Amino acid sequence: MAIPKEPRQLMINIMYLVLTALLALNVSAEIFNAFKVVDSGLKKSSEAYDYSNDDIPALIRKGAKKKPELQKYADRIDGVRQTSAEFTDYVQEIIDYMIDQTGNKNGTVDDDDYVVYQGVKKLKGEKNKDITTRYLVTGDDGVPPKGPELKEKIQETHDKFLSFVDEADSDDVETQLVVDDDSWKATKEKAKRSWTAYNFRQMPLQATLPILNKFINDAKATESEVLNYLLQKVGTDSSVVLDEFIVISAPKKSYIIKGETYETELSLGAAASSKSGTKVSISVNGQALNVQDGKATWSQSPTTLGVKKYTATARVTNPVTNEVKTYTSDYEYEVGERSVTVSPTKMNVFYIGVENPVEISAAGVPSNQVQVSMSGPGGGTISKNADGTFTVRVKTPTKSNERALINVTAPGLKESREFRVKRIPNPEARLSTSNGGSMPSGTFKAQGGLGAFLDNFDFEANCQIKGFKLVYVPKRQDAREAVNPGGRYGGEARRLVDLAKPGDVYYFDNVKAECPGDVAPRNINTLVFRIK
């Protein structure tokens, strides 16, 4: 598309492009902020598990001293803790490697792997999809992908945790660290036909970190379950099972869409079961909840957008002294609204004969759940690229009242965007760099023919001259004509050009050009040259 010559229209076009870019940036920032909120919440939960898990071993060892046959449960403590630590270190190494490779690449994670933008600290490679796909899903340069190994490590760690539980009690211990094979098997995308591809293929680094940190959190939760199991087996005469507590909120999602239900599981860092004798009550914003084995569930269905805050309170009653201790924590989650952004990255129309790049995002929806198709006039198709963008190809122009449609569907979302389809704009025929006027005879004779040029067109497209009629009008003589096929001079046209002398006039008429996607050559500009 040529740049408008009228200043007002040029300004309108520039403002439209800037607005589109800002909209895309706002949606992207909103999504990545949600990922950071989730990741931060998971890290806080993991810290709470570390805090409570550090206190339980001393109580187990104390209880095991009561009877010799209970010592076997105390002997399992180090194995449980080591299993958790080894898995945590393994996953953390994966996280650190990907952050380092998309940041400073100095072998460690430090401040140089981050940047500060508008006062907010963020990863340099937060949007990088290449590292997650190569390192975890496809492998690189003969090095196998890490994802399948991670999956095996999760299952191996799960089984190892259960090995510290008596076989007769295995059904009573809840293990959080499991491999979810149901979700990826249910997907219809061929590219997602594996656990690793479903979780990590084409996922931005910042979106992958909460997934990996959740595995760490699950391992520490399972460590807590097994340690509490060992504590129950040895029993305790302590008035309170644990002397310090912290409230944990484990939401299913910290960023939800308007109309969805926010649900979170609230518990103490080391939850006291009903068998322990310790009484626990939990409330949110003053509303008492039903507590079972030290855990309660709270849900809320917001009707407005924005950040929602709530306060969780746990009260622990000493069964011997009836002393009550209260522990309170504040939490928040964000409510967004699903929306679709379809941004042609070069023009606001689609052009025939070239690849039209398009970026598509749906706020609040993971990219692996977004389905895109094309319909309507224009004969268009759309395909997804390795970097997550899309390419549109069209065949026929749309009429003034017609539009091609890009259709975007995702869970709870179905929208379409309209676009016009046009031929590539007419190229300009030139002799060398000139489209007419005066030219010295020597310069005129030195040219080999006409060329077709596309100015101010943002696509890689080459148009070809398919022919023209050359009219030679010598000074005070009759005109002579030659029909020339193609852009370069043929025999008769070449002979007429070689006759050029001052005062002669040459007309390039009926000039035809053909651009990518054209079904037939098109007429373009006429050229007139006066020889001097």
What does this structure look like?
- The protein is an alpha+beta fold and 532 residues long.
- The protein has four domains: 12-237; 239-337, Immunoglobulins (Immunoglobulin-like); 339-422, Immunoglobulins (Immunoglobulin-like); 428-531, no CATH class.
- It is built from eleven helices and 27 strands.
- It has helices at residues 7-53, 56-64, 71-74, 77-101, 130-138, 147-162, 182-186, 195-200, 205-234, 441-446, 491-498, and strands at residues 114-117, 120-123, 247-251, 255-257, 262-268, 279-284, 287-288, 295-300, 306-317, 324-336, 339-344, 350-351, 356-363, 371-375, 381-384, 390-393, 404-410, 413-419, 421-422, 428-431, 437-439, 450-453, 464-473, 480-485, 505-514, 522-523, 527-531.
- Strands 21, 23, 24, 25, 26 and 27 form a six-stranded mixed sheet that branches. A five-stranded mixed sheet has the order 4-10-9-6-7.
- Strand 9 (306-317) and strand 10 (324-336) form a beta hairpin.
- The chain starts with 6 loop residues before the first helix and ends with a strand.
- Residues 16-27 have low confidence and may be disordered.
